[in-house]
Amino acid sequence: SSLKNAQKRLQKTLKLPESDVMTEDSDTEGNAEATLVKEIFATDPLIPDAVYFCSIEPPSLATQNAMEAALKQLQREDPSLRVNYDSVTGQTVLGGMGELHMDIVKSRILTEYKIDVDLGPLQIAYKETIEEPALDSFQVEKEIAGSKQSVTITLELLREQNELFSLDKSGENASNLNSLRPRMLHVIRKGALSALERGPRVGGQVVDTQIRLHSITIGRGTADSFVMAAVAQCVQKILTTVGTRLLEPVMALEIVAPSERISAIIADLSRRRATINDVRPKSEHNKVIYVNAPLAELSGYSSVLRSISSGTAGMTMQPCGFSNMNSNDEVRAIQKAQGFE
């Protein structure tokens, strides 16, 4: 394949033994250079975050497995489609780029897999981030089938955009953390990061937040699954205590319209919390407006634009990140997400 040929070319460039090149069928750990080869070929394409989500339900329990298989195949073909299981609601949740995207997914499942799924209401995919750093210690104990399960842990949440999980090996923490086996570190990390998938305010993914482990004591005979759940529970408690704020998806728009319509379009955009970045001539009679606007303010905007411009304007729109919200907009977003608006 082209991947294997590229691996061979890189192997020659780095002068690595063939056995050190990591391939999909290889179990060899290799050395640092071999790991580099694997990492180079493991990079993922840049896929924008989902800006909308909705639940998806099969018409019957009998078609649940078939629906899940269909979604897996669609994800392989369309990496921008996100599929998650919400353990709180017990629902399968789709994430995507908009209403049209979700409609296409539903249509394909019906036409290609003969499953007439139901989609829940489309909701904006807000994210959450912590207000300030916080550190706390917890002890979680429980007896399961006559076996005592025990975890004592000290964790800290920090504002950080790069690393999601780190170890504080300063001072007296060093001996505690150095005694952890790699397998147990993996269990702890997995539990910690799972807690960031659902924030305390609207259930949005928690971002720009690092979990720092200071120390952990695990009782003899404690199951990995209990450790993972205990770590996740501790992170969730800190998130609830310290509080999070919402980040809303923002769209970049390019609007082309006749020059005489520009003022009316900009006036409408200003009422939608938009930021006008630039207005440039497009042709003798047209101009283009470059603008960023919150997704929450753009529901039905294409129809509004047609009305304002009497059908003479056109636009393109794509996600361009997430931004902070003021307190009033945040309250409205939470009320809407909770079904009170």
TrEMBL record:
Residues 245-331 form the Elongation factor EFG domain. Residues 1-30 are annotated as: Disordered. It comes from Bactrocera dorsalis. GO terms for biological process: mitochondrial translation; ribosome disassembly. One of its GO terms (molecular function) is GTPase activity. PANTHER family: RIBOSOME-RELEASING FACTOR 2, MITOCHONDRIAL, TRANSLATION ELONGATION FACTOR G-RELATED. Residues 21-30 have a biased composition (Acidic residues). Residues 123-243 form the Translation elongation factor EFG/EF2 domain. It comes from the Eukaryota. This is Ribosome-releasing factor 2, mitochondrial. Residues 1-12 have a biased composition (Basic residues). Transmembrane segments: none annotated. One of its GO terms (cellular component) is mitochondrion. It holds the Pfam family EFG_III. CDD domains: EFG_III (cd16262), EFG_mtEFG_C (cd03713).
